[in-house]
């Protein structure tokens, strides 16, 4: 079992602590939180061991789980890496792309592994269809959330949209060519609603919408590719695949047949892949343990986390300039 410690015992940090304690692949050593009051409360309620400093915790573990505010990600990661610890770091990987690149460089220099907490990669609805996504040419995402003061210290792009940016980058085998975006601040000091159009060199276009002041929650992505449409509902954990193939000579009487102007007939097939329920956060943590033990590549690498942040930052830059960003 890998000795692990958690930096940050806020809302998400406490979830990580609970899951790491349950895991058969980690030995939870303890946590550090800068708030003494919160640390005492967590110790009293859950019985975890609290450390008096970041350095003390890092010295006692092999893996550091960084669940602190984004502003401190780089400093925490640097301390852990320089002590030879592997790092799991919540999204976004860092405050800036420069910091993210520095984390990547340090991890390579000290020969440690890192994974970024883009948890939607482990959503069972996405897992059920990801191997069916083949060269999509149009992608549409909607990630809408009811207002919650937690997270409003950063733009909605870094709070919500970055989840979909990471999913899209994992599905499109091409470089980003151009970004168009707009964002509006309604309640917060930073944009609460944003829309982005991301164009890739291979011609794929992704249209992303994110809001944290909606009346209902929605987390849905649609992939359109040749002869298929794939829908992933990250919230309800459901997937659907609609395929279009040449119609057979003698179709079933209940078959859905379409005929185009040239008289070519196509049949529509509906598939609902089996979705196996899981705990996505536990899975991302445990697959990282597997990568360390087996010396394999983590599922969401530091490079992937950096690229997601890079595109997210370009989206935010569009808000500032009100112009398209040529990449």
From TrEMBL:
Residue span(s) of domain Gfo/Idh/MocA-like oxidoreductase N-terminal: 2-118
Highest classification ranks of the organism: Bacteria, Pseudomonadati, Bacteroidota, Flavobacteriia, Flavobacteriales
One Gene Ontology MF term: nucleotide binding
Domain GFO/IDH/MocA-like oxidoreductase: residue ranges: 156-217
Gene3D superfamilies for this protein: Dihydrodipicolinate Reductase, domain 2 (3.30.360.10), NAD(P)-binding Rossmann-like Domain (3.40.50.720)
Name the record gives this protein: Oxidoreductase
Record InterPro entries: Gfo/Idh/MocA-like_OxRdtase_N, Gfo/Idh/MocA_Oxidoreductases, GFO_IDH_MocA-like_dom, NAD(P)-bd_dom_sf
A Pfam family per the record: GFO_IDH_MocA
